[in-house]
Amino acid sequence: MDETVAEYIRRTVLKIPRDEIKTMLQKWGFLSEAQLQNINFHQIKENISQEVVQLCEENCADIKQAAVLDIIYNHIHQNKRMWSVYQMNKKGEETEIFDLTDFKKKIKRQLRTALKNVTINFREYEDNAIWIRVAWGTPYTKPNQYKTSYAVYHSQTPYVFISASVFRSNLPLLCQALVVATSYQDIREMELRGHSLNSLKDIVFRRYSQNFQTHCPRPLQERNVAPENADLRIIRENKMEKEKIERVNWEVFGHGPQPKLEFAQYKLETIFRSDPKMHILDKKEPFRCVVKFSSPDLLESLKSLAPAGMADAPLSPLLTCITHKARNYFKIRDKKDLLPGGFTSP
Amino acid sequence: HLATSLPLPAEGDQLRPRIDLIVFLIDIKSKHSLKTVEASLAYVDASFFLGKVYFLVTGVGRMNCCSVNMNDIGKLGEVYCSPVLFCELELDSIRVSTAQRLLRILKICAGHVPGVSALSFSLLMKSADN
Question: What is its main location (chain B) (predicted)?
Answer without folding.
Answer: nucleus
